[in-house]
Amino acid sequence: MPSLPELQRDFAAALIASDEQALQEYVIGARSLDVGAALAVYRNNAFSNYRKALRDDYPAVLALVGEKFFDGACDAYTRAQPSRSGDLNDFGVVFGSFLQQWPPAQQLPYLSDVARLEWAIHLAFNAADAPPLALEALAQVPHETVPQLRFDLHPSAVLLHSPYPVFKIWQMSTTGSDERLDLAAGEDRLLVIRRNSTVEIERLAPSELAALQALTDGCDLAEAHARGVATEANFDLGPCLQRHVLAQTIVSFHLPQHATRAP
User: Fold this and answer.
1) CB-based contacts of 165-171 (< 8 A; 24+ apart in sequence)
2) Residue 232: alpha-carbon gap to chain centroid
3) 215: buried, middle or exposed (CB in 10 Å: 19+, 13-18, 0-12)?
4) Average pLDDT of the segment spanning 132-143
5) Domain ranges, ordered by start, for the chain
6) What is the pLDDT of residues 86-103, one digit of tens each?
7) pTM (2 decimals)?
8) Does domain 128-263 have CATH number 1.20.1250?
C-alpha cells in the first residue's frame, strides 16, 4: 500500500498528465464508472478551475486570441506548469513565459508581453501597501554617503520593457477597440504601480527605466545614475528621484553595512 504522499502524487499525475496506471487498484468509480471515467470528472473540474483563474488574470490575452485558443493555452500550461501553490491567485505566475515558447502562440510574438503586463497588474493590485519615504530621515544622511544609498520601490511597483506597444495593445483589448495598430509603432517601457487603491500604468523614458531597474536590483545610487547616463547621456538623476519619491514609487532607503563614512 503506497503512503499518503505517494497516493497524492499519483492522483495529481492522473489528473494533470492523464497517467492513471498507478491508481488502478485504489480508485473505485461511483455507479460502476471505471477508473478513467471517475478521474475524468475530477480532471474536468480541475482544468475548469485553472481556466477560470487564468481568465480572471488575463482578460486582454483572452480578448486577443478568443476562447478556444485561450482554453487550449490554459490546458497546455496546466500540464507544463502544474500548480505548486494552494492559492489559485499564484497559478498564472509564468503564463507569459509559457506563451513565449508555446508553438501555437508564435504567430503572435507580442502576446507573451501582453501577458506579462497583465500579471504585473495582478501583482500590483494584490501587493502590500507601504508608507511614504521619510524625507526627514533622508535629509539627515551625511552627504558623502549619499551615493551609497539603496532605495526601495513600493511593493506594488513592477517594471516592464517590451519591444512592442503592449500598453496600447492592452488598452485596445480591454476596451473592445477596433482601431488598427502598427506593431512597429515603438517599444514600451512601463511602470505598473498601485496608487490610492488604483493600479496605474506609466510610460518611462529609457534612462528612467534603467535607473529604477538598478534600484530594484539592489544597486546603490551611484550605479543607478551610471546606468541612466549609459542609456541617455543627458540623464539627470535628481529630478527623476524627486518625481518618484513624491509619487511614492520610492518608499524607503538604507545604507549597506559596509558603507564608508567620513571620520
Assistant:
1) 166/110, 166/113, 166/114, 166/116, 166/117, 166/190, 167/117, 167/201, 167/203, 169/60, 169/64, 169/110, 169/114, 170/60, 170/114, 170/117, 170/118, 170/201
2) 27
3) buried
4) 93
5) 128-263
6) 788 999 999 999 999 999
7) 0.86
8) no
Query: Given the C-alpha cell 503512503, which residue does it identify?
Result: 3
Residue-wise pLDDT for 152-201, tens only, equals 999 999 999 999 999 999 999 999 888 888 888 889 999 999 998 999 99
